[in-house]
Amino acid sequence: MIKRRSWAEPWKIKMVEHLRMTTREERLKAIEAAGYNTFLLKSEDVYIDLLTDSGTNAMSDRQWAGLMIGDEAYAGSRNFFHLDDTVREYYAYKHMVPTHQGRGAEHILSQILIKKGDFIPGNMYFTTTRLHQELAGGTFVDVIVDEAHDTESEFPFKGNVDLKKLENLIHKVGAENIPYICIATTVNMAGGQPISLENIKALRKIADQHGISVVHDMTRVAENAWFIKEREAGYADKSVREIVHEICSLTDHATMSAKKDPLVNIGGFLATNDEDVFRKAQNLVVIYEGLHTYGGMAGRDMEALAIGIKESLHDDHIQARVGQTQYLGNKLLEYGIPIVKPIGSHGVFIDAKKFLPHLSQDVFPAQTLAAEIYIEAGVRTMERGIISAGRNKATGDHNRPKLELVRITLPRRVYTQAHIDVTAESIADVYARRESIKGLRFTYEPEYLRFFQARFEPLEPGKA
Ligand code: PM9
């Protein structure tokens, strides 16, 4: 057999969307108007948009065709039943309740499972997930392995739960005060890092011994499965679809932001094997999202999602998806840019503390760097550091995460290798002038999820 020298995407382009290139002066004006927050830029002022992989996917011709067979009945749409069957078949959960996106599912599940004073261990926090746990009266406890907080560690499963930390917490607060263990596949805030099946099986055992359930944030489970296939002994010959099925069957409940893995632009769901949780979720969803057979999605959205789930679990799709991220990460490493290692699945994460070692965390290095990358070339990225971490709900101080990162996130099936090259070259140009970068201060800080809407000004006028 001829050895394949390279891989290419398992799709070709049928329709294109024009991009606007801007001048440096236009970008300086745009970022100032956006309060130096890339979330507040107008997308028309962005050339290459690597803010997020959430809802930015390119749908396939089959998904677009699926939109045309949307059944927009208020109740009992046929697309709901297609989605329901697909979730059961591919993800192994018995019941599914649709929601408008992931946080809708997080809200409902947190309200059902958490009582005031509870503790929720998890493999690193995620912004919306932790906030819904807190709003339900719980406290999140990080039980991820220490390697996850070290950008240099090449540990292959930095999303693993440290089982000792988990057991210590159970002994300290009592199993009756831990409604569930939350595991994310992959771990977004750690740099898109996977959890191993060995670790999931071990924590399942601990959960069973103590009568604690396991909630799965399955937003990027297919990407996690690809890393298991590549890195975990015994899984090389299994398909991504089979590995995803195995991960899901080791957990009790799940929340899904369908805007990521499943290749759509909006949608989500909550899934569970528990009849009681299912009934309660069906009841709560009508208050916050919509009827239990649409949950905030149109019939056409549910059809596109059912098709997208199936497409997302093909090995060749995931190989190209994760492969593009690896390509970007390796390019940045060639330029000597400090990034989180190993390179993750949905994005490459720049270590802003190492990129800008002269800036203290109090002047927001990652926020500053994201603004500078935009000014350089119109590439939009996202802060994932002290601003995203928010404030401690008891003391009111900043949470100070060890990881101060800029996330360069890759939408699925959207950008070409040339876009990736331009991105890497632009970041290298910022790196060359890094010593002149000064930092930011707040001019407006919202109470919840501040990173979305906060505004800043440069410490030195005219400079980020
Ligand atoms: N993630 C992301 O860009 C979008 C909003 S936060 C900047 O990474 C996980 C692991 C996520 C996630 C969203 C959600 C919430 C839950 N879990 O955005 O509400 O990465 O659909 O999902 C974002 P929704």
Could you explain the architecture of this structure?
The protein is globular, with a radius of gyration of 21 Å. The protein has helices at 24-33, 61-68, 78-91, 102-113, 127-135, 163-173, 197-210, 221-231, 240-249, 275-288, 299-312, 315-334, 352-355, 365-377, 386-389, 417-432, 450-453; strands spanning 48-49, 95-99, 119-122, 139-142, 180-184, 213-217, 253-257, 268-272, 347-351, 379-380, 382-384, 405-409, 440-444, 455-458. It has a five-stranded mixed sheet, sandwiched between helices. A three-stranded antiparallel sheet has the order 9-12-11. Helices cover 41% and strands 13% of the residues. The protein has two domains: 24-53 and 316-458, Aspartate Aminotransferase, domain 1 (Alpha-Beta Complex); 61-312, 3-Layer(aba) Sandwich (Aspartate Aminotransferase, domain 2), CATH 3.40.640.10. It has 464 residues and is α/β, with parallel strands linked by helices. The longest helix is centred in the C-terminal third of the chain and has 20 residues, at 315-334. The chain is built from 17 helices and 14 strands. Helix 12 packs parallel to helix 16. The structure holds ligand PM9. Ligand PM9 binds at residues 52, 54, 101-103, 126-129, 184, 188, 217, 219, 257, 259, 268.
